[in-house]
Records
---
Amino acid sequence: MKPVRHFLRLQDLSRAELQGLLSRAIELKRMLRAGEAYTPFAQRTLAMIFEKSSTRTRVSFETGMAQFGGHALFLSPRDTQLGRGESIEDTARVLSRMVDLIMIRTFSHAGLEAFASASRVPVINGLSDNHHPCQLLADLMTAQELWGGLQGRKVAFIGDGANNMARSWMEAAQILDFELRIGAPEGFHPSSFAQQENGTHTRIYTDARAAVNGVDMIVTDVWTSMGQEAEDGERHARFASFQVNAQLLAQARPGAVFMHCLPAHRGEEVTAEVIDGAHSLVWEEAENRLHAQKALMEFLAGFGPLAKQGV
Ligand code: CP
Ligand code: NVA
């Protein structure tokens, strides 16, 4: 029996698989726009466990599964036995005997790994405290559509360099071979473990202006991630000089673009003139969650040209 493929972090894909998946996502987007029906998941089910809030992740997975002819189940700890103490491993064992794929958004990455190791079907990380790989699929797809890829480009991630998005960008830079600069205050840099594991293509800056100097793309994210609400006041004070505004954008190369995974807080990590301006790709990124995750589900389930080619 073939081992089950999970997608818990970006580096679970090889470079060839990632590139193939991004191309396939662009093809699935074209097919959807052309009105071509494609329903490889008829009679199949995706379970989605959300231990944290979500708009994009829930809607994109649920819509993608419906377009594929399958069904998606929304499960929250509030109304499943998970919330009453049933172990994540037991939940994984039970769900994976009924459904074909499982997506989970949770806090602990170690808990997610424990869940995956008890599952008989592929598990997808819909965001953990350490990684947000599905967002990177959409962001990389957006860059692929714009530039044909990020090879040879410079990307600056400004804000919380220790959060899940920064970590997934570090993995992307390493797999796809582009330069990532992280501009973050002291105390909010990637952990030494993350730097050791995925830091070969990442340079750390404590000054936002130096980090964005001449880059092709500026990326940011909320200053306070889900689960960190108690630190909100301190984080606002520490990140004040890391706002992505027109002055900061002017330091990047002319024609540079802006990305944000959303939800955004205008006036905090980004100003309205940047996120709502001509350089912003945020709505393309959000839409591409749908197409990129359809390519991912197809690949993990073993359907579609990518799985058949065995890249
Ligand atoms: N970017 C993202 O994951 O959005 P949601 O939290 O709305 O799913
Ligand atoms: N870093 C953010 C991403 C939200 C999509 C969080 O974890 O809340």
Note: The chain has 13 helices and nine strands.
---
Amino acid sequence: MSARLAVVGSINMDLVVRAPRLPRLGETILGSDFRTFPGGKGANQAVAIARMGGKVSMIGRVGQDGFGDALLETLERDQVDLTYIRRDPEAASGVALITVEEGGNNAIVVVPGANGRLSPEDIWGAEEAIKQAQVLVLQLECPLETVAEAICVAQRHAVPVALNPAPAQPLPDELLRQIDVLIPNESELQLLSGKQEVEQAAQALLARGVKTLIITLGEQGSLVVQRMERSAIPAHPVKAVDTTAAGDAFVGAFAVAWAEGKSLIEAARWGNAAGALAVTRLGAQPSLPTRQEVMGLL
Ligand code: RIB
């Protein structure tokens, strides 16, 4: 039987330009291509879960606009449960302005719109979906008080929580203590811990109450860190086209494997493979791999 998961998070339309390099401050450069893709860290992770074979409910908000219609349509096509997505009459759907340079790296500005109005009441309205989940997945593109409320609901029903702290912001210890698995990249890890070096940063967060850290390191793979253990999971070498949503692919694949009862290390291997496949393709949701593709790479 498929694992059941819930995702609380953002749903954005990504407006993507490709350019030879990222512009400097005050500079205008010519790009080569403009495309729109469905994105948003929350929605990307929900789609990643669905393509990995998980049953997933998405809890979020979009505006009552054309982007909102398109975003819901693509989520539905991926069989994401839309019951807990609200149409907000007072805010536009979230958008992300993304520049992708030749090497596949990007710079992103997100305007949250309706995502910024996802409320603690919305979370209580979706209690059933969280209660039934084997894992609750969160990021930080929605208000922190809403994220905190979702974690409380998960705790109330003994549902394990995976938090991808992106975009990074300082988090209170009380919240960190409630996280089962925290999945930052290197820069998020540094911001959260106030330390530059990976090992020291990881130890600082464990000391503040995080149970397990899985640090995604791009071309270096990932690192699973617990109090008494650490394991380095090697990357799959690939040619990067666009790194957008590679972290989301990792989180989604990891969460499905973990919900299915795989070990943290095995689940991180799934995450690495999914992230590697995602960077070989352009766009956020279009780049997310299927379970078959991930198994093929593994
Ligand atoms: O993680 C990638 C995502 O970040 C993009 O899809 C964009 O919408 C931003 O939320």
Note: The radius of gyration is 18 Å.
